[in-house]
Amino acid sequence: MISKIPERWDGVNQVYFVTVVTKEREPIFTDDANCERLLQAFREVYAYHHFRLAALVINPDHWHAVIRPYPNIVIETIIGAVKQNMLWKVWKIQKRQTFWQPRFLDHRLRNEEDLAYHVNYVWLNPVKHGLVERPEDYRWTFINPKGLG
Ligand code: NI
Hints:
- By secondary structure, the chain is of the alpha+beta class.
- It has 3 helices and 5 strands.
- Helix content is 35%, strand content 19%.
- The protein has a 5-stranded antiparallel sheet.
């Protein structure tokens, strides 16, 4: 019997591993207020472009997310809106121009194993970048215990 591709892995329910980097690697997320602004940007964008977030880590100069857009919403729309939303929050306070690198990197996840690998990658990322010795000590890592459910 040919194994069936789970519905969630078809084009409509595609899951992505996304990396967004700051312009010239400026470490803007060493400021906790900026981490809070990014989280708030995700919450606000969710109100009009729905998605499921399985994992997120905010490092000083980049962030990674494992995310599944809802049907009929493309990943570029969500990530673009999050970047724009946070830019606007900072502009209102500091009147500064963009602090994002243009565009972003994404990788389409193929299956459950690929999902598990990338969620674990997010969890261990602060250790990989030398920010903490134990992943549980990093404040800005979020793993959804329900995965994408
Ligand atoms: Ni990283």
